[in-house]
Amino acid sequence: MTPYYDLRKRLELILLGILVVTALVYGAFRAYPLLRGPTITIYNPADGDYVASTTFEISGQVKRANTITLQGRPITIDTEGHFIETLVAQAPYTILVLVATDQYGETVSKSIRVIPE
Fold it and tell me: Domain limits at 8?
């Protein structure tokens, strides 16, 4: 066999290895958010905040979620995952529970407490 043929075979194996590694890294990069599950971010109010009156708004964003519930009731989200809901606070405090579920059944919950003035 000629040295040119051996060099070509080595280069083919190296390039094939690089292609396989690149495909695996790209697949992991694309699958990571799906495997991570949904997330909930609450913008307003923060945990332990005093609300100005008995009626207040809760706002936030969910990512990678198909459904979200607030106090067990489904709420609507826009195309970017933002939500705004109007609620009534009851004395001495109200505990709000948000639960987000993704397409694979993974759930995450977040709860905050608000205090009416």
Answer: 1-36
The residues, any chain, with a CB within 8 Å of residue 12's CB and separated by 6 or more, are none
Q: pTM for the complete prediction?
A: 0.73
The domain that contains 51 carries what CATH number? 2.60.40.10
- DSSP for 86-110, written as a single string: EEE--SS-EEEEEEEE-TTS-EEEE
Query: The tokens of 95 are what?
Result: 């505990």
Collect all residues with Cβ–Cβ distance below 8 Å to 99 and sequence separation of at least 6. Answer: 68, 69, 107, 108, 109
Q: What is the mean pLDDT of the chain?
A: 90
Q: How many domains in the chain?
A: 2
